[in-house]
Request: fold
Amino acid sequence: MGNDLVVPAIVAVTLVTVAIGFYGLRLARTTSDFLVASRVVSPTWNAAAIGGEYLSAASFLGVAGLILKYGVDVLWYPVGFAAGYLALLLFVAAPLRRSGAFTLPDFCEVRLGSRRLRTLATVFVIFIGWLYLVPQLQGAGLTLATLAGSPYPVGALVVAAVVTANVALGGMRAVTFVQAFQYWLKLTALAVPAMFLALQWQADGRPAVTPPDGATFRTATTVVVEQQAVLTLADGQTLQVRPGDELSFTEGEPVPDVSGVANGAADWLLPSDAGSDDRGLFGTYSLILATFLGTMGLPHVLVRFYTNPDGAAARRTTLVVLALVGVFYLLPTIYGVLGRIYTPQLLVTGQTDAVVVLLPAAALGAGTTGRLLAALVAAGAFAAFLSTSSGLLTSVAGVISTDVLGRGSVRGFRLATVIAGVVPTVLSLNVSGLDVSQVVGLAFAVAASSFCPLLVLGIWWRGLTDAGAAVGILVGGGAAVTSVLVVVLGPAMTGWPATLVAQPAAWTVPLAFTVMIAVSMATRRRAPADIGRTMLRLHAPDALRS
Reply:
C-alpha cells in the first residue's frame, strides 16, 4: 500500500495497550482480581469493556465485507449481534451475577452440583474460546499484510504476544481498562473516516451503489486473486481464476460478475428469493437464532457480568452495552455500501474483509488525508483484535486455571494464559483463508446450542437436572461442533446439506432445548435437594439479599 503511517499507528495502539495493562497490574494482586476484578467494576466501565471485547474482527472487518459481498441479506449479522444483548438483559444478566460464580463451569456446579457437568462445560468453554480466537488473530495477520505488506504471520504473532502478556500479568483487572479504552478507539476509528467518506461520495456526485448498467472500475486496476472463482465478463465470456492469478482492468471497464457474490442490483439490494429456494430463508432464520441466542452463551461475554457488584449493576451494564453496540453497528454498513463504489476489485480478489482498511485510501486518494484516515482505521482494527482476544483469553485461561490445572492461584492463572494462547496462535497460522465472519458465526451457533439452553433452563426452570443438561449440551452442542469441523476441515458441499452445516443453529438449538427438557423430565429424581434455596439466590432482589 505504501502508507508509511500505518505501522506507527499500530505500534502506538500496541504501546498504549501495554501501558494500560501495566497500570492495571499495579491493582491486580489476588486471584479474584485476576478472574473477576474483585467484582467492583461499575456499569459504565463494564459496558465500555464489554463493547471493547465484543466488537471483534467479525464486527470491525467482517460485517462490512459481508455487506459488500452479499448486500442486504447479511444485515441480520449486525442486527443479531446487537439484539443478543436484549435476550441477555431479559433472561440471564442479573441471575447469573447473583449466582456468585467465577466462570460458567462454576455456575454449572452451583446450580446442579455436578462435577462431571462442570468438566463438560469446561471443554465447551475452551472450544468456543479457541474457535473465536482464531479469526481475531487471522484478522490481525490480514490487516498488517494488506496495509503494511508484512508476512501474514507477523500480525497474528504480535497480537498473540501482546494479549498473552497483558492477560498473564494483569488478569481481568488490567483487561477491563484496556477494553474500555479500545471500544472508544474503535468507534472513533470508524466514525471519523465514515464522515470523510460520506463527504467524498457527495463531492463525487453521489454515484449509484448499484448502477443500472453495472459497476465499473473508477481507475486502472491490477489485482491478484486470492480465492478460486468463475468470472463472467461484460461480453458474456467466463474465466476461471485461481489464487495467484493476476488480472488487469482499465478505467471504466465493467466489473465482472463473480461466482458466489451478489452481482446485480436486484441480488444486492433485495433479500434472496425464498419462494424459489427455501435454503436462503432457512439460512437467514438460522443466522438470526445463532446471533440472538449465541451472545448469552459466549464465555468471554458472560464472565464480564461476574465483575459487577450486584445483579442490578449487571442489568444496568447490559442496557448501556445495547446503546454502545447499536451505535457502533451503524458504521460497518456504511463501509460495505461505499465499498461497492470505490473498491469493486475486492469482489474479484475475494478479499472483501479488507474493505474497511482499504476504503479510505481508495476513495480519498493517496494524499495526506487518505493516508491519515487509513492509519486511523488500521489502528482501530488492531484495537479490535487486541480487545476481543484479551477477553477470550481471560475467559479460557480462567477455566484452564481452575478446572484443568486445578490451582486457582495467580501463578496458575498466568501459566493457563500461556497455554490458552498457544493453541489458537498455531491454528491461525495455518488457516489464513477462512472467512472471518463465517467462523465467528459458527462460534455463536455452538454457544447458542450449548450454554444458552443451559443458562435459560438452569435459571428459569426448577426441573433441570445434571443429566438433562449434560446430554443436551452433548447432543445440541456436539451437533454444532460437528458442523464447524465439517465446514473448516471437510469437503465442499452443495444443496441442503451445505446449508444445514453452514448455518446449523436453526436445528441444533431446538434440539438442545428438547433433549435437555426430555432427559430432565425422565431423571427428575436427580434434581438437587437444595433447588429452592438456589433459585431464591438467583432471583431474590439484591435489596433483600443484603
Summary: The chain has a mean pLDDT of 85. Residues 60 and 381 are 6 Å apart (CA to CA). The first helix runs from residue 6 to 25. Strands lie at 221-224, 229-232, 238-241, 246-249, 257-258.
